[in-house]
Specification:
The protein is of the alpha/beta class. The chain is 36% helix and 18% strand. The chain contains 23 helices and 23 strands. The strands form five sheets. A six-stranded parallel beta sheet has the order 5-4-6-7-9-8, sandwiched between helices. A six-stranded parallel beta sheet has the order 14-13-12-15-16-17, with helices on both faces. Strands 19-18-20-21-23-22 form a six-stranded parallel beta sheet, with helices on both faces. The model has no long low-confidence stretch (mean pLDDT 98). Bound molecules: thiamine diphosphate and magnesium ion. Thiamine diphosphate binds next to α18 and α20.
Length: 632
């Protein structure tokens, strides 16, 4: 037998067999690249991938297990949550039917690509052979019949291919695996599969299905770039590190601590980078930017050299380019992706975070920031932690404050728990208030900040780390948008602890609306009032605890923080998914960041509050910087 011996399979059977044989490797550890395949079947995939997954389940159980989801967007979120928890070394495939099933995955694809998380999407597509067009759910594009709704995946995927002919499959599969396992270019990978092609048989070379290992590289810095970066850092009197998600994906937290300690450089964290240092590390300043701590933001404001590591410098991180206020501030950017490394006109160090930190530590041996500098940072961090302690224990009445809920969940999570969140007012509060004790204990999706990620993403996190308790914090708005994967958790016996924070609407957007002079318009869940004709009646009578109960979830209704703590300790003993419902007062502000976020305000308005907001906005924009000064 040799590698070219034929194996006769359908395209879909070949895909399943190929995926089951793929592995990733980094630092000598191999693991299957795919933990399974999520799917929802329709006429666009049931006879192709559905049949193939069934055959695999019967013939080679466990090689690519099928998981049933309730919503295609949610299954992509679960895959993304899984991939993030596994540092992008493993993920899921997701199969959908044609048309709406496929386009439901587009939001999930965008989320994965923004967060640089590998997910493999296999949407069904219209017939390649076109025997009876248009088929059910086909959107006919008059400009050309080779376009389908799946072309909408192109801008949100890092790799897209459509398998018009079976012969194209091997190269498409190899290209897809390369993209998934490339740390600089990973994200959503889409292989669109016309429904007829999925079922067509062909003789495949046996070698296509051989066990294959994709080595995830740790690119080392180029010596000249290292010397340039070290030179800029040596010139600093007030250096600050911005640790992004790349630090965590690279597994570079120990190297970060060693580098920061040796050089006496305080460390701030983005949302994806939170947990890079434990919250009580002597050099940890916590969250930076619009949702940052006063400690991080005050140090950032006066920094002369900012060392970004594995960050893409979103507007939240830079406080819309106001966070770094020293007129001569310079940036050194360590990033595996060149496109991020050159941001803010920084001195680019294109490399894996761990490899770069080790190299920088060597290049800067014996050098450190001026004496007393680290102590200044330490004092600011301690003052912030006292503010956190107060926010955790406000004793607000009659309804508790959200910060107290975060405090109770933080206590319940201990050293090993994982908190999951994505949208609403909680991500900002979590960013500055959550005490991280482990690099994988904080999982807030803030690249796409997608309402509805929470429960589905939390499911993926738990599947990736079954030994850890997963706490999903979800607002009532996000819950109403996408809670249906609770049924998947029940079906699979996957234990997540969902803490549902009820505040009758979009507290976050309400607060933001007020700052831009839009008066909280349309942000609360209220009846339309018969007399005013507006949505300013009483609260809607939704009972989301009853909703979760009806899905088969074990539910606790907490009225107070003491009740929440009791429910969380009972939840620890539950075998399956749990939801704890608590109502909070949306009008208690968390300790402020002293930082700005650029959201434009109407330039002309009849409303006086809008006009006032515009004045404030114009004043704030004066502080906005361009960071265009080329590196020295
Ligand atoms: C899919 C999606 N649609 C809209 C938004 C804009 N948005 C951000 S937060 C938010 C409200 C979230 O409400 P809820 O989950 O109740 O959290 P709260 O703001 O009350 O804390 C909205 C509409 C978003 N982030 N994602
Ligand atoms: Mg809400």
């Amino acid at each position: 037998m040799n590698g070219d011996d034929p194996v006769r399979l359908t395209v879909a059977q070949a895909i399943v067999r190929f995926l089951a044989a793929q592995h990733s490797e980094r630092d000598g550890t191999e693991q299957p690249l795919f933990a399974g395949c999520f799917g929802i079947f329709g006429h666009g995939n049931l006879a192709g991938l559905g049949q193939a997954l069934l055959e695999a389940e019967l013939k080679t159980p466990g090689t690519l297990r099928y998981y049933q989801a309730r919503n295609e967007q949610a299954m992509v979120h679960a895959a993304a949550g899984f991939a993030r928890m596994r540092d992008r070394l493993a993920t899921f495939a997701c199969t959908s039917s044609v048309g709406p099933g496929a386009t439901n995955m587009i939001t999930g694809a965008a989320l994965a690509t923004i967060n640089r998380l590998p997910v493999l999407l296999l949407p069904g597509d219209v017939f390649a052979t076109r025997p009876a067009p248009p088929v059910l759910q086909e959107l006919e594009y008059p400009g050309g019949y080779d376009v389908s709704v799946n072309d909408a995946f192109r801008p949100v995927s890092v790799f897209f291919d459509r398998i018009w002919r079976p012969e194209q499959l091997p190269s498409a599969l190899l290209g897809a695996m390369r993209a998934l396992t490339d740390p600089a270019a990973t994200g959503a990978v889409t292989l669109a599969l016309p429904q007829d092609v999925q079922t067509e048989a062909r003789d495949w070379p046996r070698a296509l299905f051989a066990r294959r290992v994709w080595h995830v590289p740790r690119p080392v810095p180029e010596p000249a770039a290292l010397a340039r970066a070290a030179g800029v850092i040596r010139s600093a009197a007030r250096p600050v590190i911005v640790a992004g998600g790349g630090v965590i994906y690279s597994g570079a937290t120990a190297e970060l601590a060693a580098f920061a300690e040796a050089a006496g450089i305080p460390v701030t964290e983005t949302q994806a980078g939170k947990g890079s240092l434990p919250y009580d590390h002597p050099l940890a300043l916590g969250a930076i930017g619009s949702t940052g701590t006063t400690a991080a933001n005050r140090m950032a404001a006066r920094a002369d050299v900012v060392i970004g590591i594995g960050t893409r410098y979103s507007d939240f991180t830079t406080a819309s380019r106001t966070a770094f206020a020293d007129p001569d501030v310079r940036f050194v950017n360590v990033n595996v992706a060149a496109a991020d490394a050159v941001k803010l006109a920084g001195t680019a160090l294109v490399a894996d975070a761990r490899a770069a930190l080790t190299a920088l530590a060597g290049a800067l041996a014996g050098w450190s920031a001026p004496p007393g500098y680290a102590q200044e940072a330490r004092e600011l961090a301690q003052a912030w932690d006292q503010a956190v302690g107060r926010a955790y224990a406000l004793g607000h009445r009659p309804l508790p404050a959200q910060s107290e809920v975060i405090g109770a969940v933080n206590d319940a999570a201990g050293t090993d728990g994982v908190v999951v969140c994505a949208a609403g007012s909680m991500p900002g509060e979590l960013h500055r208030l959550w005490r991280t004790r482990d690099p994988k204990g904080y999982h807030v999706e803030y690249g796409y900040s997608c309402m509805g990620y929470e429960i589905a993403g939390g499911l993926g996190v738990k599947m990736a780390a079954p030994g850890r308790e997963v706490f999903v914090l979800v607002g009532d708005g996000s819950y109403l948008m996408m809670a249906q994967e609770l049924v998947t958790a029940v079906q699979e016996g996957i234990k997540i602890i969902v803490v549902l924070v009820q505040n009758h609407g979009f507290a976050s957007i309400g607060g933001l609306s007020e700052t831009v002079g839009a008066e909280r318009f349309g942000t609360e869940y209220r009846y339309r009032d018969a007399r005013s004709g507006r949505l300013d009646g009483g609260h809607l009578p939704v009972d989301l605890a009853a909703n979760a109960e009806s899905l088969g979830v074990r539910v606790f209704r907490a009225q107070t923080i003491a009740g929440l703590r009791a429910a969380l300790s009972q939840a620890a003993g539950e075998p399956g998914p749990v939801l704890v419902h608590i109502e909070t007062d949306p009008n208690v502000p968390a300790p402020a960041s002293e930082a700005w976020w650029d959201v434009p305000v109407a330039e002309v308005a009849d409303l006086e509050p809008t006009r006032r907001a515009r004045k404030d906005y114009e004043a704030a924009r004066q502080r906005q910087r361009t960071y265009l000064q080329p590196p020295p």
